[in-house]
């Protein structure tokens, strides 16, 4: 039987994200929210 640990590796781990990178997340979130509102039930 497969274990949960088998699905997650350490190769794609991101450490030490700078604070300035987090400021871009709000812009991306707004863009995704706008797309979700514009494409409601069309996907």
What structural keywords apply?
mainly alpha; 1 helix; single chain
Summarize the structure in words.
This protein is 47% helix and 0% strand. It has a domain at 17-43. The protein is mostly helical and 43 residues long. It has one helix at 19-38. The N and C termini lie far apart (35 Å). It contains one helix and no strands.
Largest sheet: none
3D shape: flat
Q: How confident overall, as mean pLDDT?
A: 82
- Structural class determined from secondary elements: mainly alpha
Discrete helix count: 1
Find the count of extended strands (DSSP E, 2+ residues): 0
Which radius of gyration do the C-alpha atoms yield? 17 Å
Ranges where pLDDT stays below 50 over 5 or more residues in a row are none
Head-to-tail CA distance between termini: 35 Å
Order of helices and strands: H
The portion of residues assigned to helices is 40-55%
Strand content: under 5%
